[in-house]
Write a structure and sequence with these properties.
The chain is α/β, with parallel strands linked by helices and 306 residues long. The protein has helices at residues 15-19, 29-41, 64-72, 88-95, 110-117, 121-137, 160-172, 189-199, 219-228, 256-265, 274-288, 295-305; strands spanning 10-13, 46-51, 80-84, 101-107, 141-147, 151-152, 156-157, 177-182, 208-212, 233-236.
Amino acid sequence: MSISYPKHVTIVDVSPRDGLQNESMTVPTAVKQRLIDDLIAAGVKKLEAASFVSPKWVPQMGDNSALLEALAATRQSDVSYSVLVPNMRGFENAIVHRPDEIVIFGSASETFSQKNINCSIDESIERFAPVAAAAKAQGIKVRGVISCTVGCPYEGEIDPSQVAYVTKRLVEIGSEQIGIADTIGVGTPLKVQRALQAALEYADITMMSGHFHDTYGQALSNTLAALQMGVSEFDTSVAGLGGCPYAKGATGNVATEDVVYMLHGMGISTGINLDKLVVAGERISEFLGRPNGSNVARALINKRQS
Ligand SMILES: CC(C)(COP(=O)([O-])OP(=O)([O-])OC[C@H]1O[C@@H](n2cnc3c(N)ncnc32)[C@H](O)[C@@H]1OP(=O)([O-])[O-])[C@@H](O)C(=O)NCCC(=O)NCCSC(=O)C[C@@](C)(O)CC(=O)[O-]
């Protein structure tokens, strides 16, 4: 079978946002800034810096403005800084910092939508529509991410028709990109491909990105399955950090190091220096006092030490 893979893949490191939003310890703004600096030093060109959500719901993102202010001094023009925004209140707080991309985040599961952003799927689209319009009016890119595209912590399996429906609504309000997220990492390759196929009813493959958590150890296989369909952008998290406060039991995102190792091994470029990436993952893991969640990072560190 001959499969044609993209020559280059864009890695969106989401560790400063998804990676840290669920931490029980308070992560100082300076540590987040250092993580972002380390990622950029490793060659990461797109990252999720923070979310502009309610600090009562996600206290770890409460320093969103302070972080963006701190980053302003060293902001790189060739790096895209994305922020998550759930409503106009979040947009007004975020726009002061001129992010390169606004991420609106919906769900293919009604219950998860209620638990995560306190409204139904249709209500969320009503909230996102003015955000997308305001962002576009200011020349800022809009990406729509869909949570629970294969499984939901409350509803179980999700029908691909739900993914198609939310994709349609997000595209209608102006999403230029659609992220297919396996929030709790229950997906397997064919299920992920079915979710992607459903989204393709309303969006082009060039608009798609993948966001796979690794709870069941399937994230790298799911990444490959999406890659085989032509997806060329993936959300990943250095050291495999991550989790959603409203998806109990879900572990981190697929580790950036693991995806980069796989892609480079397949002859696909990312622009990322794996050794420097490992340093970034080690520094944040040490700060958090937890083992590095990347298999590749652990293997490279062990090799260096032997
Ligand atoms: C969406 C809301 C705000 C609705 O929350 P709500 O309580 O329904 O909102 P509200 O409009 O009724 O406002 C209530 C209070 O929150 C304030 N408020 C309202 N909006 C904002 C805002 N933007 N920024 C700051 N403050 C805000 C508002 O001003 C008010 O303040 P009060 O009068 O009580 O003092 C809330 O549910 C929320 O913040 N949820 C957090 C969602 C979240 O961050 N989840 C984790 C990220 S999603 C994820 O991880 C999945 C993803 C993307 O990674 C992909 C995947 O893996 O699936």
